[in-house]
Task: structure prediction
Amino acid sequence: MDKPAILGGKPVFEKLLPITRPYLPGYDKIEQNTKEMFASGIITNDKYVRQFEASAQNYLGAKNCVAVSSCTSGLMLSQKAMKLTGEVILPSFTFFATGHSILWNNLKPVFVDIDPETYHLDPKLVNEAITEKTCAILPVHIYGCPAPATEFEEIAEDHKIKLFFDSAHAFGAKIGKRHVGTFGDVEVFSCSPTKLMVTGEGGLCATKDDELKRKLSAGRNYGDSGSYDCELLGLNARMGEFNAILGIETIKLTEENIEKRAKLFEIYRRELSRLPGIRFQKVAANMRVTHKDVPLYIDSEEFGLSRDHLQKALDRENIMTKKYFYPPLHRQMLYKEYFEEFDKKLPETNRVSGNILSIPLYSAMSEEEARLVADAIKRIHEHRDSVKNEKSSSIH
Ligand SMILES: *Cc1c(COP(=O)(O)O)cnc(C)c1O
Result:
């Protein structure tokens, strides 16, 4: 076996292999609508946005979809529209936008620990954390694997509190035959470039509640439902027509996108699950996942190298990786006032966050590239003792 690049071998990739790339339609597919939109002079929140919302509703089997400027703004507006006050239960093991939306609404985040294998909010711990101050639960379909949504629906119903999901990773995910986007009071997708269904920038709120849909539609337009007499504190969170035109086409690619990702993921699973100390996210049998990311849990004892050592060595192979999601929210500066209260209650969050690494996956990646990434990891593992002792790989 050749040496890994960190020990002086030739890097597996000459040019950086990105961790992700958006799956886009050919330019010809958006040309006609874009021309017409230009000619009409109507470039935001109009007929293509309506068409995009209708396509999303149809694809998801959702009653209402409201397109917004981002998942972050969609989450912020959902909380305003539901008139939340008090405390919201959410994971700390997530992207920071989940938590930021709570802070923007002057609500208190209550971080609850995750299941050590699925990385989802643990329903049992959620149940125990509910108090009279709790107004809502905000689970995340992390990495595009559905959270146990029906269990959360039961908990929310029992306690008469709201349930909404950060579904940023999960456009196209399913539990049984039911799409993510049809659970809880509202689910919010992201359509930014690293996510499954891309509109450039954008987000999508899916809800079965007609009144909530009405409020979200006003909310994205400063709070004005058309009367010029605002009823809620809104934002400018409209989606542009450009973005919607792209979305109308990318929705059509979703199934193909997910199938391609699943095939590449299978290569990783086959090649890497043989190595000691590498674990994959546990997925229940009835779930379809989007593989928004491929998180590898690195048990440093068993693997012989820490997550950080592996990342450094892959970096030298020109393979881009990300520590999604590290540090967890409660250990970030912005959330420092919550550290004392929650850090001891989040052992699994801290452990998973400290050992997780996402490797490249996107539809346009070739099977050969996936195999090369897996080979690079095997080679680094083979040379683990020298890699660990390599000066330039020292981790502080
Ligand atoms: C990307 C992401 C968001 C934010 O999405 P935007 O559309 O960029 O606002 C929110 N939550 C999670 C879990 C994400 O990964």
Summary: The radius of gyration is 22 Å. The pocket of pyridoxal-5'-phosphate is lined by residues 70-72, 94-95, 97-98, 140, 166, 168-169, 190, 192, 203 (CB under 6 Å). Residues 14 and 225 are 54 Å apart (CA to CA).
